[in-house]
């Protein structure tokens, strides 16, 4: 079972309560929780790929940390970034590798 997400309420609960509830309860509470369809690990890989492709680096950093918690290894993240560099763009790969080094740098 996935950890209950509270980032929406923690960061936007007072400012945008409906959005915060949708983030925590629907996106993470329902969609991410459907592990009989896709594991949290697989969802993390997909999400990191989508965020890298769009160049959304603040969100990508947060999701890389979640990916690591969900069992994605350094080797897998490096392979994901390398593969996507040809589809999403070389500069995005460089930026993404900077994040990955910070998050996965010590892992073997």
From TrEMBL:
Residues in Carboxymuconolactone decarboxylase-like domain copies: 17-102
Domain of life: Bacteria
Cross-referenced Gene3D superfamilies: AhpD-like (1.20.1290.10)
GO terms assigned for molecular function: peroxiredoxin activity
InterPro entries: 4CMD/NDH-1_regulator (IPR052512), AhpD-like (IPR029032), CMD-like (IPR003779)
Annotated protein name in UniProt: Gamma-carboxymuconolactone decarboxylase subunit-like protein
């Amino acid at each position: 079972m996935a950890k209950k997400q509270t980032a929406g309420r923690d960061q936007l609960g007072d400012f945008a309560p409906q959005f915060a509830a949708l983030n925590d309860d629907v996106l993470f509470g329902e969609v991410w929780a459907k592990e009989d369809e896709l594991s949290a690990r697989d969802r993390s890989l997909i999400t990191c790929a989508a965020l890298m492709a769009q160049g959304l680096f603040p969100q990508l950093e947060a999701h890389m940390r979640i990916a690591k918690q969900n069992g994605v290894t350094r080797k897998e993240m490096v392979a994901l970034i390398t593969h996507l560099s040809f589809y999403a763009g070389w500069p995005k790969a460089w930026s993404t590798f900077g994040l990955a080094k910070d998050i996965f740098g010590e892992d073997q």
